[in-house]
From TrEMBL:
It comes from the Bacteria. Gene3D superfamilies: 3.10.20.30, [2Fe-2S]-binding domain. This is Aldehyde dehydrogenase subunit III. Residues 2-78 form the 2Fe-2S ferredoxin-type domain. Keywords: 2Fe-2S, Iron, Iron-sulfur, Metal-binding, Oxidoreductase. Its EC number is 1.3.99.16. Pfam families: Fer2, Fer2_2. It comes from Stigmatella aurantiaca (strain DW4/3-1). GO terms for molecular function: 2 iron, 2 sulfur cluster binding; isoquinoline 1-oxidoreductase activity; metal ion binding. It is an enzyme of class 1 (oxidoreductase). InterPro entries: 2Fe-2S-bd (IPR002888), 2Fe-2S-bd_dom_sf (IPR036884), 2Fe-2S_ferredoxin-like_sf (IPR036010), 2Fe-2S_ferredoxin-type (IPR001041), 2Fe2S_fd_BS (IPR006058), Beta-grasp_dom_sf (IPR012675), Diverse_Oxidoreductases (IPR051452).
Length: 150
């Protein structure tokens, strides 16, 4: 089996895995990084959203072979010693109910705000529309993103 090396949350990791193995399963089962959640497995719900070279992506549909030599950041690598401003806004706005989708929501919001630091409500809604929250906390998600953009 091939060995793939990539940077995960600012640390170089190497894993031996089949080339077509989903990065989500490599993260969760082999590297014990459990922030990205399994929701749908087909890239639709956004629960696993992480960053690949700074851009939001879905590890559930990304084969591990495609991240060799790249930078992967999960929710665990977002804030470091302190909370990222988006994580703090999530707390301040009491966004989470069940919390299952929140790592993916936060990672999507961080990538979005890098590209659009002062978005309109419509831009926020469009950017977050591909992340599903079964509890329906969309209004609080928008408020948290607005808080960070101020």
């Amino acid at each position: 089996m091939p060995v793939y090396s990539f940077t995960l949350n600012d640390k170089t990791v190497s894993v031996e895995a089949p080339p077509d193995m989903s990065l989500l399963w490599v993260l969760r089962d082999m590297l014990r990084v459990t922030g990205p959640k399994y929701g749908c497995g087909v890239g639709v719900c956004g629960a696993c959203t992480s960053h690949l070279d700074g851009n939001a992506f879905r590890p559930c549909i990304q084969p591990v072979s495609g991240v060799a030599g790249h930078q992967v950041t999960t929710i665990e690598g977002l804030g470091g010693e302190t909370l990222h401003p988006v994580q703090q806004a999530w707390i301040d706005e009491d966004v989470a109910q069940c919390g299952f989708c929140q790592p993916g929501q936060i990672m999507t919001a961080v990538a979005f705000l890098r590209q659009n630091p002062h978005p309109t409500d419509e831009a926020i809604d469009a950017a977050m529309s591909e992340n599903v929250c079964r509890c329906g906390t969309y209004c609080r998600i928008r408020k948290a993103i607005q808080r960070v953009s101020r």
